[in-house]
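Hi R.,

Here's the chain you asked about this morning:
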Amino acid sequence: MATKAGVTAREIEVFDRFTAQRGLRHSRPRRDILCTFLDEDRHLTADEILRLARRRNPRVGVATVYRTMKLLTESGLCRELRIEDGAVRYEHLFGHGHHDHLICSQCGRLEEVVDPAIERLQDRLCEQKGFVADHHRLEIYGRCRTCAGFRKTPPRQRSVRRGESR
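And here is the predicted structure, written out as tokens:
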């Protein structure tokens, strides 16, 4: 498996080739946005990318973020993930296998999940119906562990003093 630096270098190469084929010039703001996105291992909104990219280069503009993310999407390096609340987040595609998402309706947390049993079930359903799937996307909405109030370990029982009942 390639290291993060190795994957990032290949992604930059793919993007450089893609923009060159389109006759687009290399700009520092576009490169700063690209590197900002590649450095993050989470699903980001354009506003989050803008905020992070401005740490590298305060001159990065909002329009450049949207244009660059469109180019990244067209190049196959990322995709837009439109979730129910209307937010658009960008996720890495290059070097990432198929996965599904658990999305917290309360705090917006996204978690990537993979379950071979679900994939086999989907394949079986398609086969039973004579359906040839091109691709699929599974998003499960609910509340994450934190928002649902779950704890990793059960709460400790409070001690009972003499004369008290539970």
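One quick note: The mean pLDDT is 85.

Cheers,
M.
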